[in-house]
């Protein structure tokens, strides 16, 4: 029971991170119908920028942790958002009228490019960061096994919930959100009624990248090591989460993220840790076979 | 307006403004990742600053953009005439000449004066990718199924040769069909549940399968020896006659058989011809099967699945054959890879390989056999030229993929030869297009 509870907490934390990345996939797929293959790399860049900002702050001697966290959050979100924006401008916008495969290849090319860009610029070694936020709340203890909810996990979950609430408000109650929902319905129609489609798509990439940056910061803090290759697997799992929740659906992305996080953690805890990635992929395959629209997605209408 | 015109004509001012703006964006991008480098120091991570590199990057963006603006002004982009019959005819003639010329060149290559060991090695590598590209083209180009896990079948082929040769002592020639059959079986097994998915979903599921096979190869140590891989895979022999510098007195070797002096390059030349023949077989197979009902069904399915279903074509079976045949060729290529390397490990079968093969197919212009050869030479041979810049190789590779796609979204040789021509349709199409061509 205690072991189960602990794994539940760990799974929720991991799921929050996946969910934040998954939102980027689901938004882009919802609007322009393509897999933003480089999104995992954007998340990796977010992690690197957080790490670098931490180091800059510690050199400048900013010691008060909440302030440092806020600055890192802002810096990671800003710089990563610019990366997301440029990514769309350079690799996707020229290809919007082209065959879908062209955009996919361009995205894969961008993913390879960004991965190697960070490898060349920052080195291939793993980057360790000493734990900044230690300690936690002991929830229960029995026979020496302590169930701990660490402060960092609280921060991650609270921050994710806060972002999700803000983000839902943004999508449901602002002009920008309305434009995004309109684009998701029909790009051409949206353009006809006077929505600036290009700007809406750009904003989508910026928001997606900013959320991925938050996930990157969380991972940097949570695991304490990052390298240039973390984007690939995290990207696939987040995409799986987006598909599981129903691609195009924002609550679905979050739900899918949490489920994937839980599945992965429980699989590692109760079965074999070696095959934990296989677990995520199997879930993806099973969902696509038996419920291709995901848990909360709308059925796709086949048109002639 | 005159106030904005500080120097030169208006387009130049605009161009400079644009370039400045982009340089600013480049500065924002470069400062955190290029300007500050994390380095391992005794007390933990430290930072190094590299402002000159940032300056160079920003200057490159500025100058590059400005040059592009100037070039656009001097040579304004022509309106696209993508499928004009004149261009199509020119491409067709070019391809018809290029195909045989390339084959003739490939046949003669080992005997040309500059063909040393290195050139042959690179050529073998390029040909392996040409073969993989042609194999994947059956799945992606003909049947229109996006497969991002093609490397899984390549791995199945490689491991089946390695394991059969190591455990049962079978020869390369006995293993080749086994490897192909096993890979095709895997294609059917993996394809069966997922082929009713379409487009990007199929892509991501095949990617998942590719990764799963790799994870299994890493973790199933008792069979595959895990991440350490399998070494000592038997090298190929000349139809049973080994390439052996000093054969036993009563046994024969390649050089004694032909009465020539031994040279280690003989084996390399044999490998070269082996992969050339395998690749050409793949090509011949594709060209011929396009004329069979199943090939026609693939192409029809690619164009419109609903129409096919209403015409009584079974989409699942048709797709499965494409998947299985594509996988079979990957299996052949995999056994060749294993025998050439003599060592395989799961590291050789990452997602990157799938991405490279798919990139070759798409960059070449989907469905174009010659285009795949050109793309393989550009993507595989090109980075070989800059071998010394090892760490920038994949960077250039990714950038090249994006650039080619943005420049030519339909691939390098974008013209697709129709498989069937209706005589009447052709004539009317020409009659219709000719008056249009006279309009300036």
Automatic annotation (TrEMBL), chain A:
It is a multi-pass membrane protein. Pfam families: BPD_transp_2 (PF02653). The chain crosses the membrane at residues 12-35, 42-61, 67-87, 99-118, 150-171, 205-223. It is found in: Cell membrane. It comes from Candidatus Defluviicoccus seviourii. This is Leucine/isoleucine/valine transporter subunit membrane component of ABC superfamily. CDD domains: TM_PBP1_LivH_like (cd06582). NCBIfam families: PRK10740.1. GO terms for biological process: D-alanine transmembrane transport; L-alanine transport; L-isoleucine import across plasma membrane. PANTHER family: BRANCHED-CHAIN AMINO ACID TRANSPORT SYSTEM PERMEASE PROTEIN LIVH, HIGH-AFFINITY BRANCHED-CHAIN AMINO ACID TRANSPORT SYSTEM PERMEASE PROTEIN LIVH. Belongs to the binding-protein-dependent transport system permease family. LivHM subfamily. Keywords: Amino-acid transport, Cell inner membrane, Cell membrane, Membrane, Transmembrane, Transmembrane helix, Transport. It comes from the Bacteria. GO terms for molecular function: L-isoleucine transmembrane transporter activity; L-leucine transmembrane transporter activity; L-phenylalanine transmembrane transporter activity; L-valine transmembrane transporter activity. GO terms for cellular component: plasma membrane.
Automatic annotation (TrEMBL), chain B:
Pfam families: BPD_transp_2 (PF02653), DUF3382 (PF11862). GO terms for cellular component: plasma membrane. The chain crosses the membrane at residues 20-39, 51-74, 94-115, 122-142, 148-166, 173-195, 201-220, 270-289, 320-339, 351-380, 392-408. It is found in: Cell membrane. CDD domains: TM_PBP1_LivM_like. Its main location: membrane. It is a multi-pass membrane protein. Coiled coil: none annotated. PANTHER family: HIGH-AFFINITY BRANCHED-CHAIN AMINO ACID TRANSPORT SYSTEM PERMEASE (PTHR30482), HIGH-AFFINITY BRANCHED-CHAIN AMINO ACID TRANSPORT SYSTEM PERMEASE PROTEIN LIVM (PTHR30482:SF20). This is Leucine/isoleucine/valine transporter subunit membrane component of ABC superfamily.
């Amino acid at each position: 029971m205690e072991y189960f509870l602990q794994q539940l907490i760990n799974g929720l934390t991991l799921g929050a991170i996946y969910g934040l990345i998954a939102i980027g996939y689901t938004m882009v797929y919802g609007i322009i119908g393509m897999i933003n293959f480089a999104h995992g790399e954007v998340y990796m860049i977010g992690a690197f920028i957080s790490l670098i900002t931490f180091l800059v702050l510690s050199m400048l001697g900013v010691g008060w942790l909440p302030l440092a966290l806020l600055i890192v959050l802002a810096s990671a979100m800003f710089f990563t958002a610019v990366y997301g924006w440029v990514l769309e401008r350079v690799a996707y916008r020229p290809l919007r009228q082209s065959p879908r495969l062209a955009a996919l290849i361009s995205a894969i090319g961008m993913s390879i490019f960004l991965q190697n860009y960070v490898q060349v610029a920052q080195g291939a070694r793993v980057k360790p960061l000493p734990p900044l936020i230690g300690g936690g709340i002991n929830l229960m203890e029995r026979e020496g096994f302590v169930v701990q909810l660490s402060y960092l996990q609280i921060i991650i979950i609270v921050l994710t919930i806060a972002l999700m609430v803000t983000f839902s408000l943004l999508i449901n109650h602002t002009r920008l959100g309305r434009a995004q929902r309109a684009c998701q319905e029909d790009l051409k129609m949206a353009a006809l009624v006077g929505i600036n489609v290009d700007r809406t798509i750009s904003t989508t990439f910026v928001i997606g990248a900013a959320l991925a940056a938050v996930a990157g910061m969380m991972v940097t803090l949570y695991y304490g090591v990052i390298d240039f290759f973390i984007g690939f697997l995290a990207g696939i799992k987040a995409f799986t989460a987006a598909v599981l929740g129903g691609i195009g659906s924002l609550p679905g992305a979050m739900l899918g993220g949490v489920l994937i996080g839980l599945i992965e953690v429980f699989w590692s805890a109760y079965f074999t840790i070696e095959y934990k990635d296989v677990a995520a992929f199997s879930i993806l395959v099973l969902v696509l076979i038996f419920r291709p629209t995901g848990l909360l997605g709308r059925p796709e209408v086949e048109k002639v | 307006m005159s106030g904005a015109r500080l120097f030169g004509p208006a387009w130049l001012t605009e161009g400079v403004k644009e370039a400045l703006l982009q340089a600013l964006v480049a500065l924002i991008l470069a400062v955190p990742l290029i300007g500050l480098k994390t380095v391992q120091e005794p007390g933990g991570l430290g930072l190094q600053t590299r402002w000159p590199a940032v300056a160079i990057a920003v200057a490159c963006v500025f100058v590059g953009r400005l040059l592009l603006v100037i070039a656009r002004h001097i040579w304004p982009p022509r309106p696209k005439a993508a499928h004009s019959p004149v261009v199509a005819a020119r491409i067709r003639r070019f391809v018809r000449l290029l195909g045989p010329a390339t084959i003739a060149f490939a046949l003669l290559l080992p005997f040309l004066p500059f063909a040393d060991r290195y050139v042959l090695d690179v050529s073998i590598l390029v040909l392996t990718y040409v073969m993989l590209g042609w194999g994947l083209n059956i799945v992606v180009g003909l049947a229109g199924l996006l497969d991002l896990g093609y490397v899984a079948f390549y791995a199945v082929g490689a491991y089946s040769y390695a394991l059969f040769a190591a455990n049962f002592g079978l020869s390369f020639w006995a293993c080749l069909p086994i490897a192909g059959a096993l890979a095709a079986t895997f294609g059917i097994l993996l394809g069966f549940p997922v082929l009713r998915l379409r487009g990007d979903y199929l892509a991501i599921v095949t990617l998942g399968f590719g990764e799963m096979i790799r994870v299994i190869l890493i973790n199933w140590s008792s069979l595959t020896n895990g991440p350490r891989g399998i070494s000592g895979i038997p090298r190929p022999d000349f139809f049973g006659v080994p390439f052996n510098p000093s054969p036993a007195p009563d046994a024969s070797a390649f050089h004694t058989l032909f009465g020539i002096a031994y040279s280690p390059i003989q084996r390399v030349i044999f490998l070269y011809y082996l992969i050339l023949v395998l690749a050409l077989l793949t090509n011949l197979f594709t060209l011929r099967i396009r004329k069979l009902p199943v090939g026609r069904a693939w192409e029809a399915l690619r164009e419109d699945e609903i129409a096919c279903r209403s015409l009584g074509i079974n989409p699942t079976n048709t797709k499965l054959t494409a998947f299985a045949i594509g996988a079979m060729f990957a299996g052949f290529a995999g056994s060749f890879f294993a025998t050439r390397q003599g060592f395989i490990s799961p590291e050789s079968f990452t997602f990157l390989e799938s991405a490279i093969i798919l990139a070759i197919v798409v960059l070449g212009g989907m469905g174009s056999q010659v285009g795949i050869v050109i793309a393989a030479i550009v993507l595989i041979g090109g980075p070989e030229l800059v071998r010394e810049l090892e760490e920038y190789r994949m960077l250039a590779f990714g950038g090249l993929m994006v650039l080619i796609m943005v420049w030519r979204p339909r691939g390098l040789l974008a013209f697709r030869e129709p498989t069937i021509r209706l005589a009447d349709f052709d004539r009317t199409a020409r009659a219709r297009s000719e008056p249009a061509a006279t309009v300036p």
